Amino acid sequence: MDSGHLRIRFWYPWLAKSAAAINLTAVVLSFLFLVRIGHGSLGERMSYIVSNETAVIWSWGSGILATTTMTGIFCVLLLVLDQRYRAILQMALMIWITGAATGILHDLIQMTVIPALSQLFLQVPTENLAQTIIQWEKLLVRWAGVFGFTCYAISGLIYTAVMFRTNHFPDRLARYSFGVWTFLLLSAVLVRWLTPFFPWMTTLSLLALVPWFWQLGRYRFSRRKYDKWGSWFRGGISNILYCDETG
């Protein structure tokens, strides 16, 4: 077993459980501060953002941290799932990174541009400014809700398909993964007509991933010998990555 794989076995459980903890933190902050942003009149929403600006910014920031740790999990899964499908997994990872970049940019805009527009609207509540803010909100929902959710869901479903094809990978985790990404894909389809519920959809998706990441952290992945290109062979040199439940 090479030193690189030993390092993966050492820090992977901590990464998976940290992702679960960070997602749970993001869920709590979203329930407390973000779900109210999607409801009420424009003036009420802007007033709420200005009154709770620090909490709102921290809540969106926790979303960025959650996205970053989830990307780390998918990078590790690229290494530990069946390497016969490595090219497919690499494609799925690039789709995920595209969605993650979209999500992070969305959160950064929510942390910087929207609070500034909210403050300006309360000071100078003109009709043109109101229309500008509404257009920004619609754009952000389509950006992160439609495009971002679709990228996450497609990538997650591709990873899930490889999980089912990976020997010794727990079927219950693969089935749970299929349910999560199917829900997210359905959310991507419906969010265009359910714009006020976009924060709820995001929060519920993060919540659904908490037990999945935690269970992933309870498994350790190990492998047998492989060549330097990552090709896997049957017989004397195994082509299987397998995981054993540690507790």
From TrEMBL:
- Superkingdom in the source lineage: Bacteria
Q: Which UniProt keywords apply?
A: Membrane, Transmembrane, Transmembrane helix
Q: Among its keywords, does the record have Transmembrane helix? A: yes
Residues that span the membrane, as ranges: 12-37, 57-81, 93-120, 140-161, 173-191, 197-214
This chain's protein is named: DUF4386 domain-containing protein
What organism does this protein naturally occur in? Paludifilum halophilum
